[in-house]
Amino acid sequence: MSDNTFGTLFRVTTWGESHGPAIGCVVDGTPPGIALSEANLQNWLDKRKPGTSRFVTQRQEADRVSILSGVFEGKTTGTPVSLLIQNTDARSKDYSAIKDKFRPGHADYTYWKKYGVRDYRGGGRASARETATRVAAGGIARKILGRSVKVRGAMIQMGTETINRNRWSWSQRNKNPFWCPDRNAALDWEKYLDGIRKSGSSVGAVIEIVVSGIPAGLGAPIYGKLDADLSAAMMSINAVKGVEIGAGFGAASISGEDNADEMRVRNGKIEFQSNKAGGILGGISTGQDIIIRFAVKPTSSILIPRKTVTKHRRNTSIGTRGRHDPCVGIRAVPVGEAMTACVLADHLIRHRGQCV
Question: DSSP labels for 168-217?
Fold first, then answer.
């Protein structure tokens, strides 16, 4: 299988399957001399790991990361950093009854058509289990970006339920299981998702990523656009079906004068009066907050029977047993943050190589 690597100078190659003995990644292009420990990465992995509440899969994985290479005496050496995460709670027997069936909405059918073989245990490489390695790599990317850059994500919509932006509080998002910045909405979502979960169904979500502290000048015109790379990174996350930057699709319904982010000089510094562009113009960062939103579809593995077919071309139905997220968007928040950090670290290194 090709295309397991992303990035240009800061490159991440992931490997492993949902029910294999382990998953991991190799991160190449990390500058030397950066202080790095397993604890630096574990903090982010703990935010994504399963089993943290009744609203996510109950698979119990510690997601303990081990650094196998690229670090000496607590600092990066400039050589590839290899990361390992053991799989300790896979239950492959949960999938034996559906090994010949294709789950509607899942990658089962397309993997089988492309490769002629598929790992039916939890979806193999198509499983969201793979994203744990991206979160670990994102921890390294954050070290490259430094403390002045903040990459924060929040769930702003679950199914049909949305937040009230007037109640947005970053401090609230760490106080509920949904990464929700609106305390009232989070309370409503508990009852809403409980109902979805108990019915055996699932719902989608919209995640917003906000990056502050990024300097102007990252990215490049045409084929190296920062927003293009960020969009591709978000779309590479399991179950993501749409991405927008800044005003996004909303820009189509406003006038040119409303969409224009007017500029002024204040105390000798150029400032923008608004941020419809989401911090990126012409593929290059403006120095404003970078704002990304992505839509996550409902989890494909559900208990409610759906019509499907077998690999032997027989009509049948399927209801997926096992441990699954009723809203995969919850654990997509730290994954979106990590992918954003990886893209920005890559562009920062590329910028230094050309312009400094």
Answer: --GGGGGGSTT--S-HHHHHHHHHHHHHHHHHT----EEEEEEEESPPTT
Helix (H, G, I), strand (E, B), or coil: what is residue 26?
strand
Residues 235-256: pLDDT tens digits? 999 999 999 999 999 999 999 9
Q: What does the DSSP 8-state code read for residue 248?
A: G
350: tokens are 């590329």
Enclosing H/E stretch for 5: strand 5-6
What is the sign of the dihedral through the CA atoms of 224, 226, 227 and 228?
Answer: positive
**Global confidence as pTM:** 0.94
Three-state secondary-structure class, residue 256? helix
State pLDDT tens for residues 70-120. 999 999 999 999 999 998 866 666 677 788 999 999 999 999 999 998 888
Q: Which residues contact 303 (CB under 8 A, 6 or more apart)?
A: 200, 201, 319, 320, 321
User: Rounded to an integer, what distance in angstroms lies between the CA atom of residue 283 and that of residue 213?
Assistant: 17
CA distance 208 to 157: 9
- Taking the CA atoms of 54, 56, 59 and 62 in sequence, report the sign of the dihedral they define: negative
Cα Dmax for the chain: 72
